Amino acid sequence: MSWIRDSTLSWLQLLATKVIKTGHIPKHVAFIMDGNRRYATKNGIEKIEGHTKGFDKFAETLQWCRDVGIKEVTFYAFSIENFKRKDEEVNGLLNLAEQKFRRLLGEKDKAKEYGLCVRIIGNLSLLPQNIQELIAETMICTKDHTKVFLNIAFAYTSRDEITHAIKDVIEGVQGGDILLDDIDENLISNCLYTNNSPNPDLLIRTSGEVRFSDFLMWQISNTCVYFTTVLWPEFNVWDFLNAIFYYQRCYSDIQKIIKIQNVKPIIQNSRQLTYIDKLHHKRQIALERIYPGNI
Description:
By secondary structure, the protein is of the alpha/beta class. The protein has helices at residues 11-20, 36-43, 47-68, 87-105, 108-114, 129-142, 158-174, 185-191, 237-261, 270-290; strands at 28-32, 72-79, 116-121, 148-156, 202-205, 224-227. α1 (11-20) runs parallel beside α9, α2 (36-43) crosses α3 (47-68) and α4 packs parallel to α6 (129-142).
């Protein structure tokens, strides 16, 4: 299935979408796509087929986000913890990822037309070389698109993300780029994989689990969280709109909390700004070295 789809909403769903859009629409929504394996067991199919159904739902959900005007979406696709599963399932997931990234690269013109910028957040060094190359090419080919931002957490956990951010801060201090007094929350935020993104306004988790599974733990302190018992492949547009409506009900309370916490303005000094630019440039160079088109 294509990553980029045209809207398939019925007239009733379109009407419901228009009603929802009269309220506050989150700018950034994150998804923990849970329940693919249970869906497979429930329907008597192979686990990898459950994951394939999960990807189809991912593509469909991305279109729903576009339908209501959400500009940035983050999906938790593959945790570092998933490497601990049986080899057959892990290999199946990696093969599926390879197929889907190749499919996206085959749709580069459509991605440009829709203005879709794709970012993969995670520890790419843990992935096979062929997938690293596909990811690098995808990110480089779409980096200048600015209409819709799609973040895919792949080979990701928050603990790994924060660990790497701390290492980058230490490296900056040891190299003389920044001082100990320069270390603050804002500096660490800019060293995370998600440095280009605002924090999520809404986090949706499917399948009835009420935990975060080490996903965006730094970023979701003020995020509205919506849990649903629906398995991810069975998640439908009504479930999605219900989650948006839940966010709208919570919106005023969330804004009050954010306003209280943001009394003091964030001020970056020149050393911080210079080091952050240097770090991001270093990461871009590393990505370009992976991309086979640059060889």
